[in-house]
Amino acid sequence: ADEDDHLDYLFKLVIVGDSGVGKTSLLLRYVDQVFSETFISTIGVDFKIRTVVINGKRIKLQIWDTAGQERFKHIVSTFYRNANSVILVYDVTDSDTYLSVQHKWLSDVNNYAGNKVRRVLVGNKCDLASSRQVPVESGKAFAESVGMMHIETSAKTAENLDKLFVDLVVDLMEVF
Ligand code: GDP
Ligand code: MG
C-alpha cells in the first residue's frame, strides 16, 4: 500500500442516548462539517468514517449511529460488539435524557460492551444556555463517580467537538 495509506489504529466508536439529544447531529458535524436545525431521523447508513492524525499517528474512526432504533427499544446488543468506545449523549436542556443515561444507556453499555470499552459522557446542546436543566457540575460528578470522561459539546457551534474526539483517541491509544 501507499505510504500515505498506512493506518496506526482503527477504532470503532458507538453513539447512544435518547432520541433527540443530537447523536446524528454530532456525527454529521464531526465527519461532514454540517449542521441542520431539523430532526434528522436517519442518516441512511449505520456508520461514518473519519481519519485523523493525532500525535503523529494515523487513526481511522468508524463512528456508529443508532439509525433511530433508540425510539423503539433498547439498541440490539450486537451494536456494542467490538466497540472501543461508547459515547453516551444527553441533552443539557432536558434532564430526562440525563436520567436515561444513568438508568438505561449506561447499564446497556455495561451489559453488552466489552470490559475494556472506554465510556465518555457527553452533554450536548451547550449552546442553549438559557434553557439549561443539567448543570455542568452534575455531569462531571456523575461521570467521575463511575470512571468516565465528561465533556459538554454543541453540534450546532461545534464547540468542544474536536476536543471530545482528540481526548478520546489519546485515551484509546493508551488502552488498545
Ligand atoms: P438524535 O435523535 O439523537 O440523532 O438527534 P438529532 O441529531 O436528530 O437532533 C435532534 C434535534 O436537536 C435537531 O433539531 C437538531 O437540529 C437539534 N440539535 C442537535 N444538536 C444540537 C446542538 O448542539 N445545539 C442545538 N441548539 N440543537 C441541536
Ligand atoms: Mg439520530
UniProtKB/TrEMBL annotation:
<keyword id="KW-0547">Nucleotide-binding</keyword>
<dbReference type="GO" id="GO:0003924">
    <property type="term" value="F:GTPase activity"/>
</dbReference>
<comment type="similarity">
    <text>Belongs to the small GTPase superfamily. Rab family.</text>
</comment>
<keyword id="KW-0472">Membrane</keyword>
<protein>
    <submittedName>
        <fullName>Uncharacterized protein</fullName>
    </submittedName>
</protein>
<keyword id="KW-0449">Lipoprotein</keyword>
<dbReference type="GO" id="GO:0005525">
    <property type="term" value="F:GTP binding"/>
</dbReference>
<keyword id="KW-0636">Prenylation</keyword>
<keyword id="KW-0342">GTP-binding</keyword>
<dbReference type="GO" id="GO:0012505">
    <property type="term" value="C:endomembrane system"/>
</dbReference>
